Amino acid sequence: MLSLKQMASAMAIRRGLRYLEKDPINNYFKLVNWADKIAVKPEHKEMVKTFRKIGEERNNWFQLYRRFVNDLHSNIQKKFLVNFIVNASLAGLPVKEKIARKHGINIPWAILMDPTAACNLKCTGCWAAEYAKGDALSYETLDRIIREGKELGIYMYLYSGGEPLVRKHDLIRLAEKHDDCMFLAFTNATLVDEDFCKDLVRVGNLMLAISIEGFEEETDLRRGKGTYQKVIRAMDLLKAHGCGFGFSACYHSKNVDIVGSEKFVDLMIEKGCLFGWYFTYMPVGKDAVLELMVTPEQREFMYHQVRDFRERKDIFLLDFWNDGEFTCGCIAGGRSYLHINAHGDVEPCAFIHYASVNIKDMSLLEALKNPLFEQYRQNQPFNQNHLRPCPLLDNPEKLREMVHQSGAYPTQAGDMESVDELTAKCEAAAKRWAETADILWAQSKAPKQACSCEAKAAAK
C-alpha cells in the first residue's frame, strides 16, 4: 500500500505529464511552476528560476525545448521527465546524501559501465583498445549493480565499452526491467537499425551519445573508412523514429578546429542531436600518440567556442574538462560518477585505469568504500582553479600520489602502464595549460565561492 508521501509524489508526476501531453509549448510556465513545487534544494530552485527566464526570453534554450517536444516520441518525453528530472535529479538525492553521511563516503549521481570490451572498430587513442577483448559484465552483474544503485538513490546509468551495442538486446532488457531509471549509451552507432530504434521508442528510457570526430575525413581517419556515412545514416534513422540522441566528440590536435566549428555543431543540430558531449584526447596506454594532445591554445579555443554556442545554439553542449567551473572541479571517484570496466574493476573515471577493488567480489556500497575512492574524496578538488580539474591531465602529481597511497593496481590487461609512466606524459602539458587556465579563471564570471568544497580547498 502506498504511503501518503508516495501518493502525493505520484499525483505530482501525473500533473507534470498532463502538461507535457496536452500542450507542452503553451503549458511551459505551468511545467516551470510544477517544477518549482517539487524542487527542494536551493540549487534546484535556482534552476527553476533559470527555466522561467528561458521561457520569458524565448531564447535558444527555449528553442531546444521546442525540439524536445516536437521531435521526440511522447514515450521518450515522459520517461525523461519522470526518470531523469524527478528520479535521478530530485528524488534520489536525499537518499544518496543520507547514506553518504552515514558511511562517510561519496555516492555518485551516475554510474558508467562497460557491458563488453569487444568492439567492431579500432579507433586511434580509444581507451577501450587497451582492455582485454574477451572481458564482459554479465547481464546478472549489470542488473545487480543497478538494483544496488537504486537502493543508494542512483537512477542514472551510462554505458561505454568496447561497443555497448554489441549487447543491445541486454541493454534494452535492462531498460525495460528498470523502467524507473535513465540510461545513456556511448556508441559508434554502426549497429543501429530499424528494430533497435523501435525498441528505444518502446522502452523510452535509453538514449544514445554517438561518437563522431568531425566530418567524413576526420571521422574515417580515426574510426575507419565508411564509418562517417554509417553514423549519419544512424542519426537519420533515430530522428525519423523520434529517439533521443546526441553526439560525443573527442577533440585532439588534428580535429579541434573542425569539431569546435559552428558548421559542425549546426550539422549535428540538423541531424537531430539534442546534446553534444566533448572530451579531449588523453594519452592513456603505452602506445598513446602524444602528438594528438591539444595545445593550451586549442583547449582555450574549445573553452570559448562551447560557451559561445550555449548562448546561441539550440543544443545542450558539455565539455568534460573545461566545464570544471560548473562542477567544482573533478566529478570522478564516486563524487558524481565512477566507471566499472568490462572486467569488473571499479575505476574512478573512464580515463583513469587504476582500481583497488572489483565489483564481482563485493556489493556496490562496499566498492564505494575502496581506498582509491577515499583518496579522491580526501583530495577533491585537486586544484582551486576549477579550469584545472583533472588529477591526470591537469594535476598529474595528484593521481600519482593517490594511486601509490591506495595501492591501486593498473587495469589494462596486456598494457600494465604504471602510474609513474602515465603521469610523466602529462606533466609538461599540465604546466603549459596552467598558465592559460589561471588567466581564464581570473577572468571567469563563475562565483569563486559557489562550491561547498572551496572551504575545504582553502584549508589544505
Descriptive notes:
- The protein has helices spanning 4-22, 28-38, 42-57, 60-71, 74-103, 139-151, 168-177, 194-203, 216-223, 227-241, 256-259, 262-271, 296-312, 324-327, 364-367, 371-379, 396-406, 419-424, 427-443, 454-459; strands at 110-113, 156-159, 182-187, 206-211, 245-251, 275-280, 316-319, 337-340, 346-347, 354-355, 409-410.
- The chain has 460 residues and is an alpha/beta fold.
- Strands 7-6-5-4-3-2-1-8-9 form a nine-stranded mixed beta sheet.
- α2 packs antiparallel against α3.
- It starts with a helix and ends with a helix.
- Mean pLDDT is 91; it is low at 1-8 and 454-460.
**Outline:** globular
In percent, how much strand structure appears in the residues? 5-15%
In oligomeric terms, what are we looking at?
single chain
Helix content: 40-55%
What can be said about the biggest beta sheet? 9 strands, mixed
Widest β-sheet, arrangement of strands: 7-6-5-4-3-2-1-8-9
List low-confidence stretches: 1-8, 454-460
Structural class: alpha/beta
Structure annotation, total helices: 20
Q: What is the first-to-last residue Cα distance?
A: 50 Å
Q: What is the tally of beta strands?
A: 11
**Arithmetic mean pLDDT:** 91
Produce the secondary structure layout:
Elements (H helix, E strand, L loop, with lengths): L3 H19 L5 H11 L3 H16 L2 H12 L2 H30 L6 E4 L25 H13 L4 E4 L8 H10 L4 E6 L6 H10 L2 E6 L4 H8 L3 H15 L3 E7 L4 H4 L2 H10 L3 E6 L15 H17 L3 E4 L4 H4 L9 E4 L5 E2 L6 E2 L8 H4 L3 H9 L16 H11 L2 E2 L8 H6 L2 H17 L10 H6 L1
Parallel strand pairs: 1-2, 1-8, 2-3, 3-4, 4-5, 5-6, 6-7
Antiparallel strand pairs: 8-9, 10-11
Helix pairs in contact: 1-2, 1-5, 2-3, 7-8, 13-19, 16-17
